[in-house]
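Justification of resources, computational component.

The compute hours requested in this renewal are based largely on the per-chain cost of generating structure records like the one below. Each record pairs the submitted sequence with a full structure-token output. That output is archived, and it is also reused by downstream analysis tasks.
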Amino acid sequence: MSKQGVARREFLSGAALGMGAVAGAKLLPEASAQTHAQHAETTAPAPAHIHTNGEGHGAFFNDADAETVAAFAERLVPGAPGKPGARDAGVLNYIDLALAGAYADLQDFYRRALAQLDAYCRKTYGEPFVRLPAERQDEVIAALEAGKAGEFGWPTAQAFFNTMRTHTMEGMFADPIYGGNKDFAGWRLIGFPGGQPLFTPEDLESPQAFTREPIVGLQGRA
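The structure output for this chain reads:
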């Protein structure tokens, strides 16, 4: 894994831990403040069944766009031995379900952004994003973050990066009932105990990780 990948993982994991692991997917898309006026802020996706077709998508994305989103998210939170990444957590499935539901107003945003990303990568490197080596993909993502990627009009490169980062964090650390955080991969990564029925005063005061019960999500408590 590149140094950029390690630093990105540490930043995202630290941010999620500071927010209490986003137990209910409360983050909002950052694109709403920077993009077209028709894209209002949205609330978290309603609970949905996780796809079981083995592809991790099918509600909104076509195969090509799904492959790109999965590769992009994996570079934001790359997997490593013993540390799950975006693919392990099913981030693609989360974003796919969200765009078919509560985030439906961002469908055109994603279509246009992914087309512009492909155009930028082909013009700059002669290949689409998914065919670039990890180091090149990191360069592309850094250019998007800095707003230095050409071929972007609406949405802007930075708006797309910010939205992908937000949705990747949601898919990693929201409750699995929303379609991501598969097998509690994100929560296990940061040591979040999940939806426990009760924390004693001793639990709340203890500096040690809570390990008394298995990790349980909203669906398990229903």
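The two ends are 39 Å apart (CA to CA). Residues 107-125 form the longest helix (19 residues).
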